[in-house]
Amino acid sequence: MAVSSSHLHHMQDHGHPHINDHRPRAAAASLPHKAPPAAPVRKASLPAKKSHALLYTLLALTVMVVVGGTYWSMKAHGPVEPTAEALTAQIEAAATGKTPPTNVYGGMIFSDHGNPASVTVSGIPNQACVSAGWRLARSGIVTINGTMPQRISAAILSELCNQDTANALSWSPKTE
Q1: Cβ atoms of 132 and 156 closer than 8 Å
Q2: Is residue 61 part of a domain?
Q3: Which domain covers residue 110, as residue numbers?
Q4: Successive 10-residue mean pLDDT values, the chain, 176 residues
Q5: pTM (2 d.p.)
Q6: The domain spanning residue 121 has which CATH number?
Q7: Does residue 120 lie in a domain region?
Q8: Which of 35, 94, 115, 167 has a CA positioned 20 to 30 A from the CA of residue 102?
């Protein structure tokens, strides 16, 4: 059987197994068939630049959520504001030897454990000065901005505490 050259080219182009095999048939059949090497299997992943961008985006979002949550929490609850009651408690505690480094308004607090004991605080706002002065006058002697009033009344305390924007208040507990 004769094969034309065009038919031979057609068979070569379509991978006919016996074309261009110049070995005898028995030798060709005994050789093991070797499969072409497969391409290495890679996991589907983003290119390095895209994965870094995704990582940085997630990190930025996390920081924004934490900062936003903290801001919202502080705004919703507000900072703890100092009160005249807290100042009075600090002054009374300082008279017994438990003196904090600063008073609730951030000013100085000084205690003298002599006889009589006394506590002096400074940097007190006007309204807190009046309220704390009124409470402390019931249990001791009060001096406001260097003046010790002969009688205690709300009007006198208000007048003394409104001389400055940051007042100094001293208190000596009554001795029994």
Answers
A1: no
A2: no
A3: 84-173
A4: 51 52 53 68 62 79 74 52 89 88 91 87 93 94 92 92 89 86
A5: 0.53
A6: 3.30.1690.10
A7: yes
A8: 115
